[in-house]
Design goal:
Layout: H1 7-47, H2 53-76, H3 83-115, H4 120-144, E1 149-150, E2 160-161, H5 173-197, H6 202-231, H7 243-264, H8 276-287, H9 292-305
Antiparallel strand pairs: 1-2
Helix pairs in contact: 1-2, 1-7, 2-3, 2-7, 3-4, 3-5, 3-7, 3-8, 4-5, 5-6, 6-7, 7-8
Length: about 300
C-alpha cells in the first residue's frame, strides 16, 4: 500500500504536474487534429470498406488510442483521486501503451510480410524478435512499475503523480526501439532492392516514405521518454508519456490509410506502379475482405504476429 509523502513533498508534486498537463493537452490536441484532417479518408476508405484485416487494425488502433488519451486527460484534471486509483491507473497506462504498440507493429509486420512475398521465415523471425522484446518490456515494467499517488487540489493542481519511479523503468522503452529499428531496416532493404530493379515505382516510393516517416516520429517519442526517465527529475518522468499514445496511433493509422488510398481511388496494379507481387500482397492483407480464399491468410497473419 502506498504511503503518502509529507505535505511539503505533495506541494512539490502538485507544482511539477504543470509541465505534464501542458504536454498531455498538446498530445491530445495533436491527436484530435490528425483525426479531424483524416476523418474524410477514414469514412471513404475504412467505414465503407468490407471487413478486412486492415479495417480491424485501423478501428482498433484509432479508437483505443483515442479512448486512452481521453482517460489520460480526464484523470489529469480530476480532483482528489485516491492512491489506490492512481496506482491502478499507472498499471492501465503501462498495459494500454504496450497493447497499442503491439497493434501498430502488427501493421508494420504485415507490410514487411507482404513486401517479402509472404515469406514465412521472415514473419516467424520478426514475430519471434517482437515476442522477445515485448517480454523484456513487460518484465522491466512489472518489476519497476512506479507507485501512483493522488495529488491533493493544491492551488488547482490535480491528477496523479509517480514520485518513486525507478530509472530502470525507462529501459522498458529500449526493446521496442530495437524492434522498430529492425522492422524499418527490413522494410527499407527490401524496398531498395525492389526499387533498383524497377526504377520510379510510385508504390515503392510511397512505402519508403511512409516507413521513414513512421519510424522517425515514433523513434523520436520513445527516445525522448527514455531520456526523460534517465535524466529528468523523478517528478517529471510522466511529462511525455501521452505522446506514446498519440504519435504511434496516428502514424499507424496513416500507414493503413495510405494503402487504402493507393487501392481505393481506382488505381490498378501494373508494371509501372510497383512490383506486381508486392502490390497484390499488400492488397490481399489490407484491402481484401474475409472471403473464403482470404480468411485463412488473415487469420494466420494475426496469429503469427500477434
Amino acid at each position: 500500500m502506498a504511503i503518502s509523502p509529507p505535505p511539503q513533498a505533495m506541494v512539490a508534486m502538485a507544482a511539477s504536474s504543470f509541465p505534464t498537463k501542458c504536454s498531455e493537452v498538446a498530445s491530445f490536441a495533436f491527436f484530435l487534429y490528425d483525426h479531424a484532417i483524416t476523418f474524410d479518408a477514414e469514412v471513404r476508405y475504412i467505414w465503407k470498406a468490407q471487413l478486412s484485416l486492415g479495417k480491424i487494425l485501423f478501428i482498433w488502433t484509432r479508437y483505443l488510442g483515442l479512448l486512452s488519451l481521453i482517460l489520460e486527460i480526464t484523470v489529469l484534471f480530476h480532483e482528489s483521486l485516491s492512491d489506490k486509483f492512481c496506482h491502478g491507473f499507472v498499471w492501465w497506462e503501462a498495459v494500454s501503451m504496450l497493447v497499442l504498440n503491439i497493434s501498430v507493429e502488427v501493421i508494420l509486420l504485415a507490410r514487411v510480410y507482404a513486401v517479402y512475398d509472404f515469406n514465412r521465415k521472415i514473419i516467424y523471425g520478426l514475430a519471434g524478435i517482437r515476442c522477445c522484446t515485448a517480454a523484456a518490456t513487460v518484465a522491466l515494467w512489472v518489476f519497476y512499475l512506479p507507485v501512483g499517488i493522488g495529488l491533493p487540489p493544491v492551488d488547482g493542481f490535480t491528477g496523479c503523480s509517480s514520485p518513486t519511479t525507478s530509472i530502470l523503468f525507462g529501459f522498458g522503452f529500449l526493446p521496442t526501439m530495437l524492434d522498430e529499428v529492425i522492422l524499418c531496416l527490413c522494410m527499407l532493404y527490401r524496398l531498395w532492392t525492389a526499387y533498383r530493379a524497377e526504377y520510379g515505382s510510385p508504390l515503392l516510393k510511397q512505402l519508403a516514405q511512409d516507413s521513414i516517416l513512421y519510424f522517425s516520429s515514433t523513434f523520436a517519442v520513445q527516445l525522448t521518454n527514455s531520456l526523460i526517465f534517465f535524466l529528468a527529475p523523478r517528478l517529471l518522468v510522466r511529462t511525455a508519456l501521452a505522446w506514446e499514445y498519440a504519435i504511434p496511433c496516428a502514424m499507424g493509422c496513416r500507414l493503413l490509410l495510405s494503402m487504402y488510398h493507393h487501392y481505393g481511388v481506382g488505381q490498378h496494379t501494373s508494371a509501372h506502379q510497383g512490383p506486381q507481387n508486392t502490390a497484390h500482397s499488400l492488397k490481399d492483407i489490407y484491402i481484401e475482405g474475409f472471403s473464403t480464399e482470404n480468411v485463412e491468410l488473415a487469420t494466420a497473419t494475426v496469429s503469427e504476429v500477434g
